[in-house]
Amino acid sequence: MPIFDLSHPADLTAALFPDLLLMGGAMVLLLWAVWRRESAAHQRTIGLASIWLCVATLGAVLYMLFHQGHVTDGPIAADSFRFMVDVIVLLGTIAALALGIDDNDRMGTTTAETHVLMLLASSGMMLMAAARDLMIVFLGIELMSVSIYALAGLNRRSVRGAEGALKYFLLGAFSTAILLYGIALVYGATGTTGLYEIHQRVVELQLGSSPLLLIGMALLLVGFGFKVSSVPFHMWAPDVYDGSPNPVTAYMAATVKTAAFAAFLRVWLEAFNAEIGTWHRAVAMLAIATMVVGNTIGLLQRNVKRMLAYSSIAHAGFLLVAVAAGSMQGASAMLFYLLAYTLATFGAFAVIVVLSRGDAPVTTEDLSGLWTERPWLAVAMAVYMLALLGFPVFGGIGFFAKWYVLKAALQAEEPQIALAVTLVLTTVVSAGYYLYVIMVMFMRPRPANSEAVTPTPGWTRFVMVATAAAILILGIFPDQTVRYVVRGTPRLGAYVPPVKTAPARQAALTH
Amino acid sequence: MLPEALFFSAVLFVIGVVGVLTRRNAIIVFMCVELMLNAVNLTFVAFAQVYGVAGQIFVFFVMTVAAAEAAVGLAIIIALYRHRQTVNLSNINLLKG
Amino acid sequence: MERTYLPILLLVGFVVTNAVAIILISHLTLRPRPTAEKQTPYESGMPVLGDARERFSVKFYMVAVLFIIFDIETVFMIPWGAHFRQLSCGTDLVAGVCPTGQLSLFGLWEMLVFIAILLVGFIYVWKKGALQWD
Q1: Tell me, what's the ipTM?
Q2: What is the domain extent for residue C120?
Q3: Chain B contact present for A308, CB below 8 A
């Protein structure tokens, strides 16, 4: 078992190995991407190499997940929570890269850097999952966001893409500034940016009612609220999702949300654990508003991408329920939910990649009678919709994901009856649009003037088969999956003393 | 010194927020965001007087990240300008619903 | 504390009074007799060549943005330079010098890694042709 003393640079580097592998690999691929002239073949090569890099990183993450040693307290965590989030992020990245190869071909995009940008965004997300210091949280968020601003505006010929990118950029920068001001005020109240040290100071100095800390926490909540697109900070999501290229939208809806929730949960449970009475009500209110608004507006959408955008807002509400539970159980329920949600979202967007024509949005009209023309495509889409809905058996792990969140809410120290009831009721409402998609595909006739659906490209087929199979198979054995996810709870407030306190650190403490 | 600096940075931050929420020109909105970031920097520097160097290091990171963000953001604004010949946010309305 | 700022205040006061005085005096002593020649931007009679608000080539923008990105990175090199001695010692400094035999290359390697990352960006920009003017 390795021992990481994070006050030593060498150990810190070793503990960050998967993240550094991905970043270093991304830089090599960046140079490789620019070394040859732009061509469709080169774009595919770089995409394939990026997928292999992610697989290698996934290997490193899994190795570290199963060989965890003694890790001292430091700016980064090396716990199961971090590695489980990394696994979900990397699975999402592989799916996004695979869809990206095909979607680039479809749109005639030949810039190979798109894949590299995705790798860089993912390394930022892995940093967010690892961060135990607000400084690292900020750097991770920005590494992710700046890459995704560029990805959102990837399609330079599309006006809609440029508009979506601008909206995403302006609101993203705005939310980052709010988040930063929150960090500054928390730093002002406690004198530190380390998550666990913040917790310690709050308890020791009894800062519970310090106005600086409370305003800082409120601003952090608003900042994270923007990042996870919770109501009332959700206005950007549908427009941005609609305008961005399909794989990037899936990536934003699933993987970005995973990373944002990971950082959100860790900050809230590690730094402000003692303040749970203060923030709990606010998070619960956000959760209820997000579930209600996301699901009801989702009913009105006929553009499938916008519908999925509102569905993703609604899912942010369900995930906030897990955060509001404020327990280890809530944290593992959140991870399991994120896994299920990532699989279903990428599957659904794979179907959209197949149905998309040029820059035009895919509507429920395009789905009408899909069963008669491409039965397997319709069946796969039905599985994803049922998984997002949380339907038993046919929805696979989607059902168990909701079930565990519900269980965490009810078994929290203070049972969250209101949240649980809203979760169940809004899930019933969401059936209105998920089942509508299925109804349209299987019961409506195919419009006479509709074009034939293009054959499914190889990588898209791979994503669809893999996600659908994973959803169904993991739905049969949820216990086995949960066993691994339960390992993935953050060490809430558990302080591991340094093996040997470094002089610099001592000096900083006594100073 | 600390209360004055905090008050001044809070005022600066609020000016930035109001600017973002009320102005319709994408470039000015972006400048207001930069104003907010500088208010944050000022807060960090003010607190660094009390707590030591960590706040100043944070300022370095905020500055570099803001520069990277500015580069990407201005590129996005130029890309949109080429399509629409305007940077007025009221005219940017293709995506709705 | 207040004393040290006094000269600056005096300077600011002088500058403001001076500026206000010049504008006021010229305003009060002015007897306007406008002619067509006097209304031109350059009263010496030089003809105007064109509008000042012409469009700039996007290349200027490229160079400016690249400059911002690479320029701001030096912000990390200044504190690194100021603390290079501390970074090069395996242990704490004793009277500003390393105890014998405790030198390490840690500080140097850190900066080399940092510059290598910048270099990747630079090579990318170069290969992409963003530095090509024509």
Answers
A1: 0.95
A2: 58-128
A3: no
